[in-house]
Structure formats: C-alpha cells, structure tokens
Specification:
It is a single chain. The protein is of the alpha/beta class and 255 residues long. 31% of the residues lie in helices and 25% in strands. The protein has a five-stranded mixed sheet, sandwiched between helices. Helix 6 links the parallel strand 9 and strand 10. The longest helix has 14 residues. It is globular.
Length: 255
C-alpha cells in the first residue's frame, strides 16, 4: 500500500466561533504533520487532506469528538508522495459557493442514489420505473475535459454559480427524464440536487459520494477518462491511482 493517505470530506452543519475553531484545527493538523486545505463556514466544513494513515485517521477521530462533526465521512485514496505543499485552514462564506442562500443542505438533503444502484440503472439505461436516465455533470468545463460519465450532460460552465441558470434553461427538455447530478466528491450536488427539486425537477437525484465514491465502489463502468482533483496529483484514474506523468505532460502540451 502507498504510504500517504489522501481524504476528501465535507459536512453541512451549522458552525459558530469560526476563528477559534480554525485555530484549534490548524494546531491539530500541524501537530500531526498533515497538509492540505480545510474550509470552514457557517454552513459547514470541506476538506482535502493528506498525511500518514495513523495521523490522518487520528485527526478525523479527534474532529469527531466534537458532536457537530460526528457524521463526517471521508473518501480515501493513496499516493506515493505528499500532494500538498502546506496546511491551510480558511474561513469562507460558503463551503461551495452557489449564491442561493435558500438552499440549505443541513435542513434536508436531496434524494440520492448509491454508486452500485446507479450502475444498475446505467447498465439497463433506465431507472426502476423505466424512465431514461441522464447524468448531469455539475463541474466546471476544465474538469469535464479530464473525464466524465458516458453521454453525460454538461454546460461548459466556468464556475458553480453558473449552474442554476444552466440547468433551468434545460428544464423543459429534461422533463421526461430521470436526472442524476454528480461532481468530484458530492459536495456540489448537495446544493445542485436541492436546486433541481426546487425548480420542479422531481425525478432528480444526486450521486452519493460523487465520482470518487463511484470509483471506489464500482470502478470505470460507464465512465470515460479520469477525475480531476484539487491537489498536485492532478487527476485520479478509476482505480484511484494518479494519472501517469506522461499523460499529464501530454495534456498540458495540447491544452
């Protein structure tokens, strides 16, 4: 097994005293020699961290001692080297910016579908009621270029704040379809799924755990390419290994 554990994790939960919380978390991460980025907001926490498995697991156990973080779950992958250069804990307005304050995942999640169930639907081409399934990619255009689900709908957006207008413009055309929105680790879909329901797209779901969880539980079925990640590994293959260096160089030369 590779020596460095990488985790992606988020939780929508009301937080206060962010300055004090930031200081405690940063101190704990530094003591454990972890590196990465943690975002703290009034609506919750989002993190990408890497370090030795004992220290990173220990940090998560420490964080879950706070009842607010008891339900925090992580998506795990492994690397030969540390993919982050420093440890940052930032205070932000939103852990994923959408500019729709009425969308509050803490108060109730959108309907979700597990990776295994999604594979069943995609194998068949329809959901359990016989409705056609359309995958909706909520990520930015440059992320989609690395890879996505086969025949997925995407909007060439440059930032997530553009997603609500983009999906609304396609509402009528998608009325007879079952929609499954997805992103890297699931966090964007916590908001996109609620928004789609809010505008009347009743047959919509979010992929639980995002692409990374799908890779972990299913692999490459119905997915083409890799998944961009926000660290120096650049992107992960469906087996959760980093993309080969030569492919990374070739992509940079052609982009």
């Amino acid at each position: 097994m590779k020596p460095i554990l990488n985790i992606a994790a988020y939780l929508f939960v009301s937080l206060d005293n962010l300055v004090e919380l930031r200081a405690k978390i940063l101190e704990e991460c530094n003591a454990r020699q972890l590196k990465g980025t943690i975002l703290l907001t009034a609506e919750g926490i989002n993190m990408f961290l890497a370090g030795s498995e004992p220290e990173l697991r220990g940090f998560l156990d420490w964080l879950r001692l706070d009842p607010r973080f008891k339900l925090l779950e992580s998506k795990d992958s492994w690397s030969e080297t540390q993919p982050f250069k420093k440890m940052l804990v930032k205070i932000k307005n939103e852990i994923i910016r959408m500019n729709h304050p009425a969308i509050r995942p803490e108060e109730g999640r959108a309907n979700f579908i597990t990776p295994k169930k999604l594979q069943e639907w995609l194998d068949r081409g329809t959901d359990d009621l016989g409705r056609p399934v359309v995958m909706v990619d909520t990520r930015n255009a440059f992320e989609v270029e690395y890879g996505t689900f086969e025949n997925a709908l995407h909007f060439n957006i440059e930032k997530f704040t553009e997603f609500p207008a983009a999906i609304t413009a396609h509402k009528d055309a998608l009325a007879d379809k079952t929609l499954v929105s997805f992103c890297t680790g699931g966090i964007r879909c916590e908001k996109s799924g609620l928004y789609m329901r809010e505008i009347g797209m009743e047959h919509s779901y979010q992929l639980e755990g995002g692409i990374l969880k799908y890779f972990e539980e299913v692999g490459s079925a119905h997915y083409t390419g890799s998944c961009f990640v926000f660290d120096e590994r650049e992107a992960l293959e469906p087996n959760l290994d980093s993309i080969p260096l030569e492919r990374s160089i070739r992509k940079k030369q052609t982009s």
